[in-house]
Amino acid sequence: MYRLFLFPEPFPDESLYSLAVRYHRLVSNKSYRQTSRELFGTYSRTCGSVLPCCLGALSQRLEGQYSVAELVETRTLLPLYRPFLSEKAYESAILCMQGTQGTGLKMSLGMTASGLLKHASFRYCEACMQHDSEVFGMPYWHRIHMAAGVCICPIHGNVLLSANLPEGADWRSMFLPGEFASESVLSTQSLDAALAVAKMQFWGLENPQRACDLVDGDFLRLRLTEMGMVHRGRLRELALRNFVAPRLGPGNQEVEYKSVTNSFEWIMCLLRRRRRIVQPFKYYFLCWLLDSGVNDLRKFQRRNFSIVTDRDFTTKHAYCPDKAQVATRRREFKQDKSEKCHDKAGYYWLYRHDSDWLNNYVKHHPFVRSIEAPIDWSVQDARLSKELIDARDEILGDEGKPKKITKTALLRRVSAKYRYLREFSFFPESIQVLEGLLETEHDFQIRKLSWAIKRFSPSKQCATSLIMRFAGIRIRQVSESEVDSLFLPI
Ligand SMILES: [Zn+2]
Q: In this protein, which residues make up the domain named Transposon Tn7 transposition protein TnsD C-terminal (predicted)?
């Protein structure tokens, strides 16, 4: 398994794509293809997506520094969907993102059918860009800015800008905010709904468990009851229609808001749960229509109930597992040998249905990285020097076309335990040895020519250009006499 020698430290709310771009630049890769192979072991077509795949391979390459669950929860938009998905659907979405096949993921989350994807773009906030440049040294992509329906920065209240990529370019250009021309995503500069919805979505993304409580505790129904929109268990549709009508008007000019302002029917579908999966944007927009803001969501306390029936709302079962189920899940969780609680079997299930017990368990079973004995750096240095020489010999002994002895090629063949790249000041001998082992382009060409001559046994009369081609040399750095001398042994 290939491992990564370096990976950027994630910034707050930074998307996975943004991390990939920063990695791409850090190692000065020439193409996305190369970066994708290094990060994911394959050519990933979903790296630019808000729900990227191949995270299993990335986690392995990072040697468990971030588990798949951590990557999903902190670097993608899946947590925003968690309150609207069953346990099974959420876990299968994670499995999908862990693997290499992302086909059907957006469809299974109802994103394709919602029609909201056509407004998706790379968005950023100018104030965030400036702040990030000052504090972190560079701008980066915030995942919340990429969520459907988020048109205003929830932190600064600025209308987001959408990057206009040049003709023929796409996210594989590996770009960061502010590098291409951009345009405002809203024509109305102060759309109350947009700021409120952005703040609520940001809260939902950062607090998925509390958002689950909000949805499971039927916040919307309680809000409607408080507003007097429910009479004897029946929803007063006309009263609701009259209440929301004036609030639907202002957003009508905005293309992204058309799907929620053009009709009233989706509201009834959402309240009656006729659609299988609710889009977070629609849910939080309805919260706003019902005069609720992020502070109301924060204050919401889930009330205990198991079954709610009435004539107008569909019968809903707030899922309450019985004691035996909880006991089984707890047992399976405890028996799992994974070091990190995040990675144990049934973590998500317990997170949702038995969070007090889980929090307590996690608190008493913190993940402690194994404490290493004090390092004798001089011994490490001597060992690494030897390994570097062995690595050089290995490269020289490799079958087939010669490979250049570069720093990367050598370091890939030595053990990562030395932490050479992080602590290189402790490795003076290795630095010297490494410098001495590196091959110049001239020496490499000589080696390739010797190989080509040995392999194809051409006569001296054979055109030099032919040998060059065999050796794969385009720009020659060896003299004619040097080429001649290589023929001497034959
Ligand atoms: Zn901002």
A: 343-429
Q: Which residues contact 232 (CB under 8 A, 6 or more apart)?
A: none
Query: How far, in Å, is the centroid of ligand 1 from the Cα of 160?
Result: 8
Q: Which amino acid is at 325?
A: Q
- What is the average pLDDT score of the chain? 84
How far is the centre of ligand 1, averaged over its atoms, from the C-alpha of 126 (Å)? 6
Residue carrying the six token digits 């053009």: 262
pLDDT at 350 over 50: yes
Distance (angstroms) between ligand 1 centre and the Cα of 155 equals 5
**Partners of 123 in the β-ladder:** 162
What angle (nearest 5°) sits at the alpha carbon of residue 405, between those of residues 404 and 410? 130
Torsion angle of C-alpha atoms 394, 396, 398, 400, degrees rounded to 10? 170
Which residues are near ligand 1, the ion (C-beta closer than 5 Å)? 125, 127-128, 153, 155-156
pLDDT, residue 115, reads: 80
Helix (H) or strand (E) holding 123: strand 123-124
Determine whether 66 is exposed, middle or buried from the number of CB atoms within 10 Å of its CB (0-12, 13-18, 19+): buried
**Rounded to whole angstroms, what are the CA distances from 258 to 220, 251, 299?**
22, 7, 30
Domain locations in the chain as residue ranges: 16-181, 192-317, 323-364, 377-439, 442-487
Q: Are 160 and 151 in contact (CB under 8 A)?
A: yes
Name the pairing type of β-strands 316-317 and 182-184.
unpaired
Confidence of residue 307 (pLDDT cuts 50, 70, 90): very low
